[in-house]
Amino acid sequence: MNQSSVLIVGSLAYDDLEMPTGTFENVVGGAATYASIAASLFCPVRLVGVIGEDFPNLVITDLEKRGVDAAGVERAKGKTFRWRGRYSKDLSTRETLDTQLNVFADFRPKIPEAFKSTPYVMLGNIHPALQLEVLAQVERPKLVVADTMNFWITGEPKLLGEVMKKVDLLVINDEEAREITGIHNLVKAANEIRKRGPKYLIVKRGEHGALYFDDAGAFFAPAYPLEEVVDPTGAGDSFAGGLMGYLTRVGSLDHPHMRRAIYFGCALGSFCVEGIGPRRLLDVTQGDLKKRMEQFMTLVETGGPVGIPS
Amino acid sequence: MNQSSVLIVGSLAYDDLEMPTGTFENVVGGAATYASIAASLFCPVRLVGVIGEDFPNLVITDLEKRGVDAAGVERAKGKTFRWRGRYSKDLSTRETLDTQLNVFADFRPKIPEAFKSTPYVMLGNIHPALQLEVLAQVERPKLVVADTMNFWITGEPKLLGEVMKKVDLLVINDEEAREITGIHNLVKAANEIRKRGPKYLIVKRGEHGALYFDDAGAFFAPAYPLEEVVDPTGAGDSFAGGLMGYLTRVGSLDHPHMRRAIYFGCALGSFCVEGIGPRRLLDVTQGDLKKRMEQFMTLVETGGPVGIPS
After folding, report:
1. CA torsion angle for A262, A263, A266, A271 (degrees, to 10)?
2. Which of A184, A204, A300 to mutate to test the interface with B (most CBs of B within 10 A)?
3. Complex ipTM
4. How far is CA B199 from the centre of its chain?
5. Is the pLDDT of residue A1 over 90?
6. Predicted structure pTM score
7. Confidence tier at A91 by pLDDT (50, 70, 90)
8. B1 CB near a chain A CB, below 8 Å?
9. Distance from CA of A247 to the nearest CA of B (A)
10. Which has fewest Cβ within 10 Å: A39, B15, B97, B271?
């Protein structure tokens, strides 16, 4: 059996990052970039997005070397999407200083013919109308995963509602889960979101790990605790990419695989934050991943059943 | 072999709780109260503390019925220690509105002769000078656990340093770990704290679970996710009591037992927050505990080894 691919649709960007350790400009970023790099550790990736004339060919070539098919990356006239943000001293919060949509303003995703039957589809955090356009073009995927953000939750609730009906797994953060539902308690908010469409839900909580909900109940995986966090940019996208990559690789959505996929997502997120932009993520080897997963498991292993002592 | 006991020294109190759902006054509280109730699900408890003339005999009788030996609870002239706090709407933060030390102001712990050889000792969050007085009275305990708070970290750093040298396991929250060390990163802060004395360290993170550190590395357990949190008061003390109760019951500090003890601590914390004050905690049966632990394990079980798929 041939290894399945994952289709990733979303942003490629330039980020300007004002960190406590200094300002880093023109850092290659974008949700689809991070997700593709992470997923490519597990399976072939098909990437759809848009870049401007200023985006280096070298980055695309690097992605291609990792097994990312960039045939769906359109080079448009103008500048690449750019985001500028400033992080708090402890890196726990950030504020957006500037967003320049540039070529992203007129982006309409065109899924190449050869990509349309990709079984695993990830819709990055783009306008819900564009997410629906992607879904209209693909053919009966096995799994559709989507991300979104506050901007669309408040600005396009109806369209987002349509997306949610067509999505198998929604991956959002805790604030977004609260904003979608108006419910503070995450267990209750998760139940409400799952009623609106997604069979599976992941609520990302940054350094506090991730909660997963399905018909069988809840599952929790912690963030991997690091001694040094350099740059949280892209951690959530790396999480989603690692998760999708793993699911695509194993070709199964059963309960244990979903759980393991979440751990792999957390592991990829932990690598991501170890360097500025995608720097560290790009260097991760299969050996690094194996070692991190082993250490991750020692963090959570209870060493046997946790029964009441007699 | 007779079942070992745990010695718990700390506060018994009246709490006035201003919750989003209403104000609840004269609620029986205190760290030692919560810890004793939790620990008594696992083993006999020996309690040392002070109450005023206003503290109901019925509460003491109830504790005694649970296997708590209250011979060390001194009834002093005056009023019981009282704390008044107000919780934020989402219960995630609280502010102290008033603290009346009352009989606690002159409290000097006197360990009854019959309690002095108790193998497991828990020093609640009291003045470090009093914690040292307790340690001077007990005979070579197998495990000494201590809690502390910001007030002593900033006010009595030297005495607290002395306590830390004599403690096996320190149980504090994340802000306290940062305050003791001046280090924001919890992994680094934990390493620094363990250099100052405690062989084992638990960093409580409230709804975000607990981190445990020993020579073998780090371990993480999440908080049990609840649909309804009623009152977080005493959750950390119930956690510590459940943890100590379990360790005392099994009579072992080996790595797997430590990890399971942390899960039992989290389970007791989760019961505690389900009712105002210790109300729910007092009703917890062995059956409730067994059921919660089973559900807790489904929350974290990966369903097999999490290896890289081939």
Report:
1. -140
2. A300
3. 0.83
4. 18
5. no
6. 0.90
7. very high
8. no
9. 10
10. B97
